Amino acid sequence: QVQLVESGGGSVQAGGSLRLSCVASEYRGSTYYMAWFRQFPGKEREGVASVYIPWRSGDQTSYYYADSVKGRFGLSLGNDKKTLVMELNSLKPEDTAMYYCAASTRTDIVALRADALEVAKYDYWGQGTQVTVSS
Q: 79 in the Ramachandran plot: left (φ > 0), alpha (ψ -120 to 50) or beta?
């Protein structure tokens, strides 16, 4: 079973930045996708950014971003393939949410944004880290 631990949340003024980190306890080849989701109070959890993990040498990474964060948030996968960092820039009050790290070991996920950012495709979740952006 994959364990995920998030960190880096906090409070920031609009226009500021935060750096969220997620560390997974998975083993090589067990996790195909990792992602960040967020959930607003009273709303459904939604995908923010996702990455396909290239376990094989020569494989290419694929990054997927929700339209609402494209150009503002940046995703990066550590060399250990178990650390996922998301840089949140130009933050807006509407970015305020609980952010969750997720991992998928499923083999039926399609290499398209719709699947990479789909809650139902992920089977492991962290406890979340709060991001609050004030105007």
A: alpha
C-alpha span between 133 and 120 (Å, rounded) = 28
- Provide the 3-class DSSP secondary structure of residue 29: coil
Length of the chain measured in residues: 135
pLDDT tens for residues 44-100? Answer: 999 999 999 888 778 888 999 999 999 999 999 998 888 999 999 999 999 999 999
Q: Report the SS3 class of residue 15.
A: coil
Q: Which residues neighbour 64 within 8 Å (Cβ) at sequence distance 6 or greater? A: 35, 47, 49, 50, 51, 113, 116, 117
Map tokens 């339209």 to a residue.
67
| Alpha-carbon distance values, 69 to 20, 28, 73 (Å) | 14, 29, 6
Alpha helices, H only, 20-118: 113-116
